[in-house]
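Task: encode each sequence below as structure tokens.

Item 1
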Amino acid sequence: MDHVMKSTLRHGRTVTALFAWPMFLLRRLIYSTPVRSIRQEMAFESLSFDNLALRRLPVETNRAPGSRQVPGACFSRVSPSPVTAPRLVAASAPAFRLLGLDPAQAERAVAPEILCGNRLLPGTEPAAHCYCGHQFGNFAGQLGDGAAMYLGEVLGPQDDRWELQLKGAGPTPYSRQSDGRKVLRSSLREFLCSEAMHHLGIPTTRAASCTTSDTRVLRDPFYDGNSQMENCTVVLRIAPTFLRFGSFEIFKATDPVTGRCGPSVGLGDLKATMLDYTIQTFYPDIYAKYKHQCTEMYAEFFGEVVRSTARLVADWQCVGFCHGVLNTDNMSILGITIDYGPFGFMDRFDPNFVCNSSDDGGRYAYSQQPEICRWNLARLAEALAPELPSERSGPLLNDYQSEFDARFSENMRRKLGLQHLELPGDSDLVSSLLETMHSTGGDFTNCFRLLSQFSLSETEGAFDLPNFLFLLLDNCASLAEMQEAFRARMHPSQLRLMMSLAESNPMLLTHLGGQARLEAELERAKKLLAMQNMSESGKKERDTEMWTAWLQAYRERLKKDFEVSGVALEGWNASRTKIMNSANPKYILRNYIAQRAIDAAENGNFTEVRRVMLLLEQPYTDQPEKEEQLARAGGSLPRGAMAMSEQEEDTDEAGTSGRDKVGGYACRPPVGARSLTVT
């Protein structure tokens, strides 16, 4: 299914001499020397494929077209369906270099044909992966790569292994009723976010290119019955592997709730083969140490998946990233972000933020992500039994929360510039900051970034607090926006029913996923009630008081950190600012930024996509030149989420039209963009 953004206005190579170099010098050479002068950056045709997965894991022999159940196999042979007149939208130079490719290869006339799958390189063996999954808490049976195709595995310049995958290249045995195609909207979002997350420092799959075409498919982008023809688009994805939790659920016995089972139920030998392949290939240290002790090896493997997943989710929470569809088939066994669909970065901080408008119950809300990922790990543990007994996986799963808490606390101390001292009250300081953001409607990214400008001074009162407060309040929501945010989401009769169920059968309510939804609804009602008789000036006065109180507590905490630092105040402030600016991004892929690039691309202009891609390669660095380029391009960009709304045009003191004046890359969303939703 294509994910929709809707405005309602709402390893082979030849580098023998280089091995004698120290690794850090080699990396510096690779990333700083002009690409044409580096011998190991190759042409497409020179890529060295070593398709280990297809040699080690069973591949279905049936090559007939059409969807089907695939028992006893991990892959099915497929062929990409050609598209007409492919053209490159954008390519990522850093992703190309992972493969040892010269980024200039993207400029070749043949590049779009290769990158969309029209022309297959020597050594590729297209296949689709079979997996199952729990979707929104229920076992869905066989799913598989319905719109993705394994091409092969490339041995990269650092002796690493990279699986190449086409997304949107046509039907597979796992496509069910779909056509296996993706369109420009969803493809651009995945391409941009894959690379953006990497440059934020968050483990992720990568995206090398996005290629669109003249081939058209019918889509209903707003799910309102108004279907339209859209351009088929293909993304070339890269990862060490795309194996996921659901890969091991193909062995699941009949589920008591849904009545579905995995296609390879009862094939324990195949499960052992998959486990051994996975651990030997991607966790070689564990394999080397425990290969003759299977239970210990599986336990170590599961424990590492638990810990890496906990760290990953903590990283998400600290940049305000919401995945949107945290089903077991969308979680990697490497602890990396995988499958970008209806994702979203928070603008205004809201723990109940739901980026996927199809998630009516808020199962995958921002605040629910840590617990949902733990739930998914429990399903993985079930899938690994009896090879990994529950008495071994249970204690390992219990390590999840402590690993998450440690990573979250570490990240938050860096975001607040607490360099030298860890205190028990730090978690309370973070909690009160987030509550202040929530109550005032503070922009999550911008408020954290602004805090680096809050510094200690030699004398009391030397710091310009009123001006700093002005900057903070400028990044808080208006009263009208907050009232809209806290309005009721449930019909009164539904709310009464859920409250009744909470009293009579709370376990059933929790099982149905309603407890968190009920609590969120009651919290919204409480906050809306508090604003019922508030004026805009009253909100500003209240927000000022809340931020002033928190900043006072923050100042006292900074003093304690400085006192144990042993360095001069000026140097301490400078070091703290540097640390904070490296932990708090200036730029994230906000929905309106992505939509602006999509709107332009759908009109044949790929410049904005490429500008955003380059901007997000340096998310922690101020890039005023990109803002200037955007301002100059405003008049040529199509009107859409990037432009000021009609209401904003009326209040534009400069008298410029909404078509000419566009929101920047680091500002809060324009009014017209705040109703963007993704499904």
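Item 2
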Amino acid sequence: MKIPATLQGITLVLGFVLCVCSTRSNQSGNKKQPLSWSGYLRLKYKNANRTHSITLSNNFKPNFETKLKGQVHWSFKEDINIQDSKNGWLKGLGHLSKEGVNVSHSQSHQSGEEDINLQHNKSIQKKSAFKVRRPCMVTVGRKQIPVSCNSPVFEASPVPEDATVFKFDKIPSDPRLLPEIGNGHLATVLFSDTIYMNGLYNGANTSSHRARIPSTVSFNISGVSPANSSRIRVLDMGRGVYYERFEGHGYFIEVRQYAHRVLSRLLVIEVVMKRDGSQHLSINVTVNTGPPSEDITFKNSSSNNPYICVLTGETKEAEYPSIAPTTPVTVYSNNIVNTITLPPRISGAVIPFITSISTSKDEAMDYWNKGMSLMMNQTLFSSHVDAWTRLWKRGHIDLTGDLTLSRITYASQYYLLSSLPVEEDKTWPFVGLAPGGLAHGGGDRDYMGHVFWDQDTWMFPPILFLHSDIGKLMVNTRIRTLNSAKLNANETGYKGARYPWESGFTGLEVSPSEACGDREVHITGDVCLAFRQFIQQTNDTHFLTSEQGADAIFNMAAFWISRMLYNHGTGKFEIHGVIPPDEYHRNNDNSVYTNSIAKECLQTAMLVNRLLGKESPRLWSNITANMYIPFNSTLQYHPEFDGYTLDTVVKQADVVMLNYPLMEEDRGTQVTKNDLNIYEKVTPGGPAMTWGIFTINWLELGNKSRADKLFERMLLNAQEPFYIWTENADGSGATNFQTGMGGYLQALIFGYGGFRLYNQELRFNPSIPPTITTFSIIGLDYANNSFDFVFEDKKMTVTMTLETRPVGIRINNVTTKMTLGQAYVYARVQAALVPLQVKIDDEKWHLAYNIIFLF
């Protein structure tokens, strides 16, 4: 895909670069310097058979790129005489020298361009045509550093620009609906006065919340020269950058803002200026730092550089001091001047302002220096863009036929990925996804940045399918806090590992609601379900044996056993005194969801033992066979809990989750239909993800028209112009509600894609979302392979794009071994991917599946 001119070939190709806080070139007036520089001069010819001569003194100072009458470029400040022997209009544009040696070149030329290499005391050497070679520099304080002038090269983006590049004239009046930029370590909402860092919390136990760092990157442009410049604002989700562009005839100014996707400690502002003539270019800026942080005690620290600001501090109050102390923070950033001006006789510049934030002062400085190093070799921005390109190539969902729906889909993916790291951090752990993402959660807002079941149940499944490596990072957030979960279980009188309803840094309970912290125990089952899905999707037995995966699952099973009661009258196992996903009902016995997911956790533990070749205790199978699941045999539906009566209003999806994602084995089609009908009527609003579950289940039952209506109802939560999701359709509740985004993406993958994970295969039964012509899932991961799926009205195409083990595609009970890169085209029907054990016998493939995968 073609890179827009606004982004391509700008960094350091414009002739000069100003860095740090200085906007002045390091000129030395008219003082002559010895000739010790070699550079290039470009000459252009409109007509054929022109000759020219070049005269240089032996004393001149290299300076900046200048363009004269659209025909001649040079890169020297003084003592230059350029004459054309056939046309005198160039004569006298330079400065004649009274002294020194002349270096000359005279030759007849055809129409076109060429570069001439100028070197002192050497003859001029002709260079290849059509590529400009100019002196480029980075100014750090008062020191000028030569840099390469090669243009950055961007890899073509795999995502469509019309669906990922949002152009707008005005900023939304509601600041809650502004987008974020982030990279999993740092994030900020555009124009806000706040930066948040992954894992940085302040406040004791239940008052723990994200610690606010005053922003150093909230650029507000209050004025621009020329004043009549046009202005446009752009959020480019494909490249992870927000920019504002001012332009007029022969010039433009562009201000970029991004969270670096490779150097995760960095937030970057770049001011790009370019002109063809002598226009005065400047912008007036202010930085919205907001009030001092109430969460971190900051103090200025010496940086030995007047252009650098270093703040060091520490959070004021530890979450649980016995587990982890207060957290140190260092903010290493450029001082930003109020007016940024392109100096005279410079055709263009890129002025970067870099902020580096870490728990370590040395690391913050190291990342800042790495950022400057990339800036000097022209790869700071391009490395960021390329990282986003690789991320999109690895996995994304694409819809054609409805631009709005396509934009909602890409926005949902972008916001989730902006809150996630792309690799394991060696020095600071990723703590997990909060309902409002990384850019929200200060004070008592947006669930305080805590990690809930939202991560494991709602955001994790689509990330696992599209980016299994990032999915593992999410699973590892629960491994990291396993010891805290064991402590939590022990201190509350139970065995094994009990995950908290809300967690911050320590992994202990931080919910401000005592009732939820005490009784919303289904979270431990939700974590266990995510572990099961990860095992089914990856077959990562090393995770089980060497990375505490099995230990975590066995301890979660032990918690559930200790949390159950045995009813001697019925012979059933029960769980009392819980809050189900429907939080309107705060103290109930035998929540159908809680009991079901507890049963499934024990089944997961039994699966792990089979994978490891071990026997499971008989008690486990006895519990799973005799777990009490509330059911009304007369009306053929599942009451939400003991004592639930029909027409009782519920908050959100609860019972309807038995069919998906729990995939309860004993459910029947009519029972599932009854559950959907009954609970849809008594769910008047519900957070966004609720309607995703209804959509998925109606599609499984084959009622597409019903599913389409509920799918469209879910879209009411995506607020224009940036499609920021709110918790509720009226705009209330949590902002940038990534739980709803996860539910929406699940409606696409598991609803319209019809994907279902089983122990030995991945089934799919695709249909097309409303108003869509082509539904594509690119880079879906399964069994350590990757696949592209393209679903259309009458056909589907499946291509294996990464192969680490043999996989077959099964349709109508016929399994065909897939070949890497080959497109398999079928009528759009139910099918399955099946891991294979392949043997060669007399040049014939014999396929034996269900052997190596989860057997």
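Check on item 2: Confidence is low (pLDDT under 50) at residues 1-149, 838-855. The longest helix spans residues 592-611.
End of task.
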